[in-house]
Amino acid sequence: MSSLEFNNNNNNNYTDCDRNKIKEVRDEIPSFEELYNISEILKAISDPLRLKILYLLKKEELCACYITSTLDKPQSTVSHHLSILKKSQIVKWRKMGKWTYFSLSNPRIIEHIENIIKIDSDNCFNNNINSSNINNAKVCCGSSEPTDESKVENPKVPSKEIAIKDLKHFERIAKDLGIVDVGYTKIPKKIFSNNNDLDYSNAIVITKEIPDEIIQEPIGANGYDLNQAFYKLFGNLTYKLSDFLRKKGIQTQVAHPKGNLIDLSKLAQDACIGCIGKSNLLITPKLGPNLKIGAIFTSAENLPFSKENNHNWIKNYCKKCNNCIKHCRMDSLIEKENEGIVEIKDNCIGCTEACTLCIEVCPFYKKGYKKIKEKQNKLVKML
Ligand code: SF4
Ligand code: SF4
C-alpha cells in the first residue's frame, strides 16, 4: 500500500513515513522570496516584443538604436520594454559615449525559455490559436479580460427586478467610491469584442477620473505602472459594486475597465453618459475625456435606461478641432476621409506607456465641457 492510499484510508492521520516524505518534498520547494523572484522574471519575459529583444541579443551585445531600428517600433516603446528587462536583471547594459549597449545577463536564457516551451508545446500553441480567434476585434490596447475577482457568488435564481431603494443605495455607494457617472443601457450585441453569448442584456456603466499623477507622468515605464495600478483599483471597485448587487439577488458579470469583453466607450455612449470624440475617447460633461470606463452586466431589467443622448453635438465640434489627431506623436489616430470615423493604430502607446496626450490637448479637458457648450450655443444663435 502506498503512503497516499494509507492516508486516504486513515482519515489523514500521518505516519512518520508520511511526515518524512512531506518534509522531503517541502525542502525541495524554493523559499517564498526565490519563488517571488522567479515569478517576476517570468512576468518580465511574457511579452512577444521583449522575447524578440532577447532573441536579438542571443549572439551579441547590441546598441539600443540598433535594437530600435531592427524591431521597427517607436523608440519610446523599445525603451519601455528594455527598462522592464533591465529592472528584472535579465539584460545588462553599459554606456559608451552617447550610446547604450545591451546584452543578456545569462547567455543561456533563450535555451531555458525554449525548454519551458517544450514542456507542453501542444497545449500551449492550441490555446494561443483559440484565443486569437476569439479576440478578433481590437478594443483599446486589446488586453484580455482579467480574471474575475468577485467575492460574492452569483445568486442561483436571478432576480429580474431591483428595488428602487437598492438602486439608490448602489448609486450612493458608487459615489462614495469615487465613481463619477452611472448610466444604464441595453447591451447592443454588435459591440461585443468576442463572440460572447451573454445571459444578460442590460448594463450599468460607470466612469472614474484618471488621477492627475498619471496625466502628469511622462510617457514610459513608470506611467505604465501607475496606469496598471489605476486599472486594478477601478477594477476592484467594479467588483465591489457588482458584489453589492449579487447580495440583493441580482445576477451580474463585470466588464473590467482594462478588459476587452466589450467596447466600453460605445457602451457608455449608449448609456448617454457622453459622446465619443475623434480621439476615440468618451467625452462627458463632468470629466471631459479624462476618464476610464467599467461596466456591470446584470439580470435586473427595471433599470432607468437613458433614452436621449444630449452630447452628440460634440461630434460636430470635433469636425473642426482635430487637436488630438494633430498632436499624436505616434500618428496613431487615422481619420477615414469623409466618414468622420477615427481608427486607432496598433502603435498607440496609451495603455503600454500611459500616453495621455490626446486627453491633454483636448479642449474638453483644458476648458471644460460647460464653457465649450456655452460658446457653441452662442455660435448657433448667431447663425
Ligand atoms: S496621443 Fe498617445 S494615447 Fe492618444 S492616440 Fe496618440 S499615442 Fe495613443
Ligand atoms: S481634441 Fe478635438 S477633435 Fe479630438 S476629441 Fe477633443 S475635441 Fe474632438
From TrEMBL:
Keyword Transcription regulation: yes
SUPFAM superfamilies from the UniProt entry: 4Fe-4S ferredoxins (SSF54862), Winged helix' DNA-binding domain (SSF46785)
Domain of life: Archaea
Single Gene Ontology MF annotation: DNA-binding transcription factor activity
InterPro entries given in the database record: ArsR-like_HTH (IPR011991), HTH_ArsR_DNA-bd_dom (IPR001845), HTH_MetalResp_TranReg (IPR051081), WH-like_DNA-bd_sf (IPR036388), WH_DNA-bd_sf (IPR036390)
Keyword Transcription appears in the UniProt entry: yes
Xref: SMART domains: HTH_ARSR (SM00418)
Alphabetically ordered keywords of this record: DNA-binding, Transcription, Transcription regulation
Protein name per its UniProtKB record: HTH arsR-type domain-containing protein
Naturally occurring in which organism (per UniProt): Methanobrevibacter filiformis
